[in-house]
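Exercise 7.
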Amino acid sequence: DDSQWTVNPSLEVTLGLINDMFALEKLPKDDQDLRERFKQEPLFLEVIDAILNTDTDAPIRNRSRAWHRASQYLVDQGKLWRIHGGTSIRPRHKTEKEAKRLHESGGHWGRDALKIAITDRFYSPKLDVSIMEAVQ
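Solution. The predicted structure, written as tokens, is:
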């Protein structure tokens, strides 16, 4: 082959592989508990994996979407927080329990009043469905 190389060799060629060390470690207990708490919530599980950088085996398109969603959340002291509004994230089954408790202790509020009371403190997917389950 008489062709000549026209592209400059990269740093890896001249210096060797720079980052040639891999670190393997188990997730801390708080992070394991957080993943377990949201195992029934695929959206939040995807966000948690993106924040903790444990989604390395997912396709790049799914990781990009998860990273974009994760920009709205943070993990602090084993809890998932929604940055917009500063509300704590609750799994759906816990939100249903809280809605039922508020409904019974608050004089059987209507759906809208119950939703206002819950959204001041928590964020949960399908909140309207959780409230309707509690009111019925």
